[in-house]
Amino acid sequence: DQTPLKGQVTMGYNRSVDGHMELVALETKLDDNSSFSFSGLTMEAQTDADGQNLKAKGYMDHLKIHAVTVDKPPVLVELNGLTLASDLKKTPFGFYLGQNVMVLSEGQLTYGAAQSVIKLKNFEYADSSSATGNLMSGRLSYKVGDITLDGKPVGSAQMVLTASSLDIPAMQALLQIYQNKFQPQADGTLPQTPLTPAEQVLMQVEVEKLLAAKPQLALEKFTIKTENGESQLNVAMSLAKPTSFEAAPIEVTKQMLTALDAKLQLSKPMIADLSAVQAQLVGQTDPQTIAKMASMNSEMAGVMAVQTGLAKVDGNNILASLNYADGQVDLNGQKMSLEDFITAMTTRFGGVASQ
């Protein structure tokens, strides 16, 4: 018996639009045992006459869903303090670029027979993108300030992804092919129609355009921090268009991958911390058993890293580095050609698989 949505729109003499929208609070029962609680959501947005520039922001205090079914344990989802903000500009290609931000003060999931509680605080998502001519650059970042399991600290995490020199028309063409040929349908099935010869040619042409722009992709930062350790990974690569895709695969790889740099620092105490969390998730409750499993997994990770030759152990850290440029690979300080590197990896992992 209430109006669920209300809003106000103001139009200026310059044809700009200023709007305010409010979804009102809602408390309801989904069935005899399940409930839904929503604090309401406020949104404000401004745009110019032609919709070229768009700004928006919104806020929700809380959302709570309590679902109970006969054959499954109850599930409780809670979100508190959600803030949204966007500042976008329309491009000549028909879509918007700019900045988007989402901040969640606290989220909580209660699930399973033991009614375990996973809680995260200070989750932040942000993206930014821009274009110069036909080339686009972008940045994505995710951050979780604090994660706990049943009141016990798990840790925090952060990830930053970047890309530059992405050819927009080529990406749009490839996306259209994907949507027409490969995107799952409403029932979850994949389309059965294969690419026609003309579509195969078109896809190769667009891939060549994409590579001709010399795109650069990077996992700038990926960190996981627990009570006793912190691990980091970063990867950066540069691509280019090969002279021909008809050449030998190794030659195509050399020309297409112009540079690669990767560094890993894996903390053994962090592995132990996460192993303890994993043991709790599968129902282990004995502290001594959990500690023993955590220590064993931590040491095993170091042993496997050394045995495969992919990393080395330095104190409490497992370290690995990989650099590639001009057909030469540097793996943890050991230099070799790309051909020798591929042979070494095939030999090592082929041996592990056979064992």
The share of residues in extended strands comes to over 45%
Residue windows where pLDDT falls under 50 for at least 5 positions: 351-355
Radius of gyration: 26 Å
Distance separating the two termini = 69 Å
Overall average pLDDT = 89
Return the string of H and E elements.
EEEEEEEEEEEHHEEHEHHEEEEH
Any idea what the shape is?
Answer: globular
- Helix fraction bin: 25-40%
Number of strands: 18
Structural class: alpha+beta
Main sheet attributes: strand count, strand direction, barrel closure: 18 strands, antiparallel
Give the helix tally: 6
Quaternary structure annotation:
single chain
Describe this structure in words.
This protein has helices at 168-181, 197-212, 249-256, 268-281, 287-308, 338-354; strands spanning 5-11, 17-23, 26-29, 35-38, 41-47, 53-67, 75-90, 96-111, 116-132, 135-149, 152-167, 216-225, 230-239, 257-267, 312-314, 317-325, 328-331, 334-337. The chain is of the alpha+beta class and 355 residues long. It has an 18-stranded antiparallel beta sheet that branches. A hairpin with a 2-residue loop joins strand 15 and strand 16 (317-325). Helix 1 runs antiparallel to helix 2 and helix 4 packs across helix 5. The longest helix has 22 residues, at 287-308. The radius of gyration is 26 Å and the shape is globular.
